[in-house]
Amino acid sequence: MTATQNPARAGAGAGETRTLTLIQAVTEAMREELARDERVVVFGEDVGARGGVFLATAGLQAEFGRARVFDTPLSEASIVGAAVGMAVRGMRPIAEIQFADYMGPGFDQLISQAAKIRYRSGGQFTAPMVIRTPSGGGVKGGHHHSQSPESYFAHTPGLKVVMPSTPYDAKGLLKAAVRGDDPVIYFEPKRLYRAAKGEVPTGDYTVEIGKGAVRREGRDLTLIGYGGVMPDAERAAAALAAEGVEAEVIDLRSLLPWDRELVLESVSRTGRAVLVSEAPRTANFMGEVAYVIQEELFDQLLSPVVQVAGFDIPYPYVQDKIYLPGPNRIAAACVQALNY
């Protein structure tokens, strides 16, 4: 079963559409932004002739030349540092870090430089840059190719952090990130690269960073997730519906900022919230969502907020199906909330 998207929601008012995979939508967004704005450049390890390890940049160097789509040394610190320098000097870099697990060497440049340049310069400089990186598990990548480190970056004021789960959002969020004036960490759930298929407009559009989306309406509880867990969340909701339980499914899409209003409005109606992510449980970003829900809606909750997450261990190569929140774990958490 593939993760699909509601064409009526996706293409509303956007004209003609056609079906793309998530990775095709990412490629198309970069191609269109390269053509639209000569300040845009794309670079990273093997992104040129090879087109990247997942082929997200396939064909871009041939189309736009080596000066605008180019390979870098095997140095994430240099990649991020170069992106910061280019952005400060007026360019619009899109830098690829081959796997989110390798963000570490560029951490200081992101946290100490990109995130703070607007504030430390009193608004004289900005860093309009995008760091694209495949994230999460589900593809048998092992310990160093499967982690979900988004919470590190969602803790950093000055950055924006997004993670799409549909082709429509993948394209629209990436285009919005390129056109904005802030540094954006753009996580791509690699297990959805070719599994997620949906209708994408042929015309130009963006998706506003900071706004979530309702994937399924419901009245009995609110099921909230983002990125790679969304297809399983929707499967869990469908299974609950067969038993007469209507779960409202919310896709956050953006973690920094995140759509507090959408979440609080939904939970205030349903009285129950189940939060899903594949990152380790401790200091998980969803803990912040849970805190805001109880802070704002304590007297309206019918049950404690329940979180379904990965475990506090390095990502397991051979037991990733146990580690990842699947529809069974998600549905069980929903039953727990309903039976409280």
UniProtKB/TrEMBL annotation:
Give EC number(s), comma-separated: 1.2.4.-
Q: Which cofactor does it need?
A: thiamine diphosphate
The residue ranges of the Transketolase-like pyrimidine-binding domain are 20-195
Identify the species of origin. Deinococcus rhizophilus
What InterPro entries does this protein's entry cite?
A: THDP-binding, Transketo_C/PFOR_II, Transketolase-like_Pyr-bd, Transketolase_C
Any Pfam family hit: Transketolase_C
GO-annotated molecular function: oxidoreductase activity
Name this polypeptide is given: Alpha-ketoacid dehydrogenase subunit beta
Annotated keywords: Oxidoreductase, Thiamine pyrophosphate
